[in-house]
Amino acid sequence: MNERKNLLSIGEMAKYTGAGIKALRYYDRINILKPAYVDPETERRYYSFNQTYLVELIKFCVELDVPLKELSEFIDGQETINLQDFLSHGKEAALKKMAALEKGLQFINCMEEKIISQEDCPLGQIYTREHPEKIFYVMPCEKTFDNVGLYDLAKSFIDAPFYEDSGMLEYGFLYEYSPTAIHRHVFAEVPQDNPLINCITIPAGNYYCKQSDNSLIEQSVEVFKGYLSDGDSFIAIETEVFSSKLNINKPLNELRVIAL
Prior knowledge:
The protein is of the alpha+beta class. The protein has helices at about 10-15, 20-30, 50-65, 70, 85-120, 150-155, 220-225; strands at about 10, 35-40, 45, 75, 80, 125-130, 135-140, 170-175, 180-190, 200, 205-210, 235-240, 250-260.
């Protein structure tokens, strides 16, 4: 009986920490939280009050998706835990999780901004919109949205050095029109602070734009006839845009042009 003095039963430990009894038994089984005492007759588990702090840390690691079996590396025998290393491991996992959450939140905010920016753009009509200067990583291409999907297009950039950090940056088709030729590219926008080879700078300015659920970039001259002077050199960009009600099987594209 003396061994159990001032100890918490497994039920009391569960109630005090919010960890389930099954969870506490599992922690014992995988050697990350051994009871302070196990009654040899009843096999009931008992815990010291100090172990409540470890339960809180374990629960925190669970929330961070840290595999619990990793934590057994910090247990030396049944009574000693390398607490500093345990805390450092949890802190590193927390920082990674925070960074991932922040990146996810930025992605959501960016998508919301894109949706809001599209709300006043009339479908099927030409309108103007200011676009900032952008940097595009480009590769030659002879295909359009008619015969290649955005998924296939995106795969073109998987090996590019900026791919993992691309977030909500644009990608699509870029055509350079001149009186004598058309140079066709696929493009992916890169951050302004990440210049790469094979990049071109797209000027800021007031672009003529038109939205459609079909690719129009091959018909850019006809679409914007009357808005561009005969013989103009201009660039045409076609990329996917988002609306509050998104048809995932038939994405909406925006074609935009600006004279050079």
